[in-house]
Amino acid sequence: MARNDFEARHLETLDRDLGRFENLEAATAYVARPLVGPGIAFVFIVLAGFAALAFLGQSSNTLVVVVAAVFGAYMALNIGANDVANNMGPAVGANALSMGGAIAIAAVFESAGALIAGGDVVTTISKGIVTPESIETSDAFIWAMLAALLSSALWVNLATWIGAPVSTTHSVVGGVMGAGIASAGFGAVNWSTMGTIAASWVISPLLGGAIAAAFLWFIKSRVIYRDDKIAAARVWVPVLVGIMAGAFAAYLSLKGLKHLVKISLSQAMLIGLIAGVAIWAAMIPVIRRQSRGLENRNKSLKVLFGIPLVVSAALLSFAHGANDVANAVGPLAAVVQASGSGGIGGDVSIPHWVMVIGAFGISFGLFLFGPKLIRMVGSQITKLNPMRAYCVALSAAVTVIVASWLGLPVSSTHIAVGAVFGVGFFREWDAERRLRNNRIDMPERPVLAPEERGRRKLVRRAHFMTIIAAWVVTVPAAALMSALLFYGIRAIAG
Fold first, then answer.
1. Are 384 and 67 in contact (CB under 8 A)?
2. Which of 25, 93, 322, 371 is 20 to 30 A off residue 379, Cα-Cα?
3. In which region does residue 163 sit, left (phi positive, over 0), alpha (psi from -120 to 50) or beta (all else)?
4. Strands of 291-439, DSSP E
5. Residue 148 burial by CB count (10 A; 0-12/13-18/19+): exposed, middle or buried?
6. 330: which residues sit within 8 A by CB, 6+ positions away?
7. Are the C-beta atoms of residues 105 and 310 closer than 8 Å to each other?
8. How many CA atoms lie within 13 A of 189 on its CB side?
9. d(Cα 203, Cα 410) in Å, to the nearest integer?
């Protein structure tokens, strides 16, 4: 009996000790989980530095290029974490794509866009923000590019942390401007170019929001508010998909493939027209077949917009990879060229290994840190369904075409997020309009108190103000950080 009591006490003690070990393991896993993403990102950044070392070999400027490659990899990670959310957020928020599916599609198409059509040439110092001749030495130019690259990456990292989608191109522009001022004074900055970029802060979201709201109004008036929704959808959904196909064909011809084939705006519009008509004709029997047996309600309409929405998100990612990656790795390419030849003027050739760092960095950043911003854009600003998300994606392509035709500078980030705002604010306006009409028809219905009406707003004002504030301060914040980093780098290197 005593032996049994001893064994029971021994087993009880053992179970208690094992329980402590299980709790310790669970606590360790819980603490370590947030470190997995930064750990993988750190490994990628280190590998980017070794890649630069392998491609360049031993030379007097190898260390500088390795440091630039590290900064460029860090920037690419932040682009994936922040900028790509604008393309995938609406599709995820509308439940047309799962988070895993969105990340997989974006990673493939962003990388393809960067590597296939990412451009072999980018204008020195990010679209002429700073006059190269104003910077006296190649060393000062290299320090300026390093400061611009690191400051823009830090700013995008901070914006991702607070949950604000910002323009990575504007961050690079701010970084280049700040470093240029620190190295050569205010006269080094091309202020007319800066003025057009500042104008895009207002033009991009307003134009994107207006176009998205216009398409949502069209869908509501022509399809959703009709007595026979399915019959109306059979007529108008092929038209809308044809418009999307035409817009994206023109968009990709004009923007995404401009480095492979030189295409004018008129040629791009003709390509878009041909593609739009062809897809419209092809979609008529497809939509007719998909709509068979569907109930006459709004939920049934979501089926018809699901696949076009996924395709549009993939095409947006391809075009984004083709355009914004080159801007992000431009300062890195400039450092590589200046370190090799000492030249700081003209156009900068982007080596393939630099584009690979940009493409893979975006994919890793999206996979490791992208879900936060994807959820923000897709579901936390306003509620999206496939029709509303489709309007956002369509607006992004149409707005770029309209802006190119008018010669206006625009930001793809501001367009996409502005389109989400436009859809949300249009829904608020439409709900108020219908409420007023119902009150006229049914005056006995109670009037909502102002507090209740405020609670029912369809756009979350806190996120709206956070994002707008981040947009406004992006260029000056990146510029200030860049100037401070330039002085620090010069002090260390000098």
1. no
2. 322
3. left
4. 347-349
5. buried
6. 122, 123, 125, 126, 172, 348, 350
7. yes
8. 20
9. 7
Q: How far apart are CA 96 and CA 93, in angstroms?
A: 8
User: Which amino acid appears at position 108 of this protein?
Assistant: V
Q: Inter-axis angle of helices 412-441 and 191-219, to 10 degrees?
A: 40
66 to 142, 336, 469, 486: CA distances (angstroms)? 12, 9, 34, 17
pLDDT for the residue 216 = 92
| Residue 291, amino acid | S
**What percentage of the chain exceeds 90 in pLDDT?**
13
Give the pLDDT score at 444.
52
Q: Which residues of the chain have pLDDT under 50?
A: 21, 24-25, 27-32, 121, 124-126, 448-449, 451-456
344-387 residue pLDDT tens? 555 666 777 888 888 888 888 888 888 888 888 877 788 888 88
Extract the tokens encoding 490: 């010069």
Q: Please, which residues have CB within 8 angstroms of residue 44's CB and are 6 or more apart in sequence?
A: 73, 77, 360, 361, 364
- CB count, 10 Å around CB of 351? 18
Contacts 24+ apart (CB under 8 A), 60-65: 61/339, 61/340, 64/142, 64/146, 64/335, 64/339, 65/335, 65/336, 65/339
Place of tokens 């569907």: 294
Contact predicate 312/397, CB 8 Å: yes
